[in-house]
Amino acid sequence: MKIYINHFNLSIIKDILPKFDKLYVNTENYLQVYTDQGIFKVEKGNIYSLTPVDKIIQIYENYYDNMYMIIDFSYFKLTKSTSIYGNKHISASVKRNIYKLNKNSRVKLIIEIVDNVTTENYNQYDIYFEIDNEHNVNELFIKCDIIEFLTILN
User: Fold this and answer.
1) Inter-residue contact 27 to 96 (CB < 8 Å)
2) Interval 33-70: pLDDT, tens
3) Domain boundaries, the chain
4) Which of 58, 86, 132, 150 lies in disulfide reach of 37, CB 3.0 to 4.6 Å?
5) Rounded to the nearest 5 degrees, what angle is found at the Cα of 121, between the Cα atoms of 118 and 126?
6) CATH architecture, domain defined by 2-153
7) What angle do CA 88, 127, 60 make, to 5 degrees?
8) CA distance 64 to 138
9) How many CB atoms lie within 10 A of CB 137?
């Protein structure tokens, strides 16, 4: 699941990245292609068709220090493909940086940097926490990790 901080100022992400250098785990780079026939992901020489699976969204008011958290259980189902289909497309290069407080932490902080390859004039940042769907955001250790990340973000 993805956990978003409601009303987080995305324009500061570039400036706060150095705060997380010691917590850096790895980076995933891939190309996301949006066509008139679907969404595709190209990663490590493989092509995947992405099918959105919409799930419920929960809102936790005052999760910590008057912050609202939006919990999204939706995901994309990946199906290996041999080609990208569609005549019209927009492609985006995604750099997905992953951070953890320690190697055993179940909470990941994800900072995505998206560049629009097609138009070359688009740069977007996104930030969210990621945990497995079977965990609860109010479990003691998960909540403590999220609060520690939020403290760094402030």
Assistant:
1) yes
2) 999 999 999 999 999 999 999 999 999 998 988 889 99
3) 2-153
4) 86
5) 95
6) Alpha-Beta Barrel (3.20)
7) 115
8) 11
9) 17
Residue located via tokens 């080609």: 83
Return the residue matching tokens 């324009």.
Answer: 11
For the chain, give the number of residues: 154
Cβ atoms of residues 64 and 147 within 8 Å: yes
Mean pLDDT of the chain: 91
What is the CA 130 to chain-centroid distance, rounded? 7
Give the integer Cα–Cα distance in Å for 56 and 63. Answer: 18
CA–CA dist 105, 138 (Å, integer)? 15
Three-state SS annotation for the chain: CEEEECCCCHHHHHHHHHHHHHHEEEEEEEEEEEECCEEEEEECCEEEEEEEECCCEEEEEEEECCEEEEEECCEEEEEEECCCCCCCEEEEEEEEEEECCCCCCCCEEEEEEEEECCCCCCEEEEEEEECCCCCCCCCHHHHHHHHHHHHHHC
Q: What is the pTM of this model?
A: 0.89
